[in-house]
Amino acid sequence: MEKNFSPLEREIYHLTGLETKREYRFHPTREWRFDFAIPAVRVAIEVEGGVWNGGRHFRPEGYLRDMEKYNEAAACGWLVIRTIPSELLRVKTIQQIVRACRRTVLLA
């Protein structure tokens, strides 16, 4: 395990044994990246900032770009977990990520 693993990466590895990658480019032709990805099971974690202050993700153009990205991710077989920074390391978010990883493994 890398020395500079984030708390999220450490927790996911501890609970699932799966490696998490930061800023993971998932699409073959577009420059889109996931904030975090678990490529072995095609689970992504997107941290949506600016919820309370009208950040990019919640303005019309940003919202439409995110929709295109998430729809294309689904078409490529990715399951995307969306969260906000304050919820990223909460037990319920970690449980959702772990369930998504296990579900993906069971479907394979």
The assembly state of the depicted protein chains is single chain
Structural shape: globular
Please tell me the overall pLDDT: 89
Major sheet size, sense and barrel closure:
4 strands, mixed
Rg (CA only): 14 Å
Secondary-structure topology with pairs:
Layout: H1 7-16, E1 21-25, E2 33-38, E3 43-47, H2 60-75, E4 79-83, H3 91-107
Parallel strand pairs: 3-4
Antiparallel strand pairs: 1-2, 2-3
Helix pairs in contact: 1-3
Describe this structure in words.
- The two termini are 26 Å apart.
- 17% of the residues are buried.
- Helix 1 packs across helix 3.
- The protein has helices spanning 7-16, 60-75, 91-107, and strands spanning 21-25, 33-38, 43-47, 79-83.
- The chain has 3 helices and 4 strands; from the N terminus they run αβββαβα.
- The protein is 40% helix and 19% strand.
- It has a 4-stranded mixed β-sheet with strand order 1-2-3-4, sandwiched between helices.
- The protein is globular and about 40 Å long.
- It is of the alpha+beta class.
- It comes from Parabacteroides faecalis.
- Keywords: Endonuclease, Hydrolase, Nuclease.
- This is Endonuclease domain-containing protein.
Q: What is the structure about, briefly put?
A:
The protein is an alpha+beta fold and 108 residues long.
Protein traits:
40% helix, 108 residues, alpha+beta, endonuclease activity, hydrolase, endonuclease, Endonuclease domain-containing protein, globular
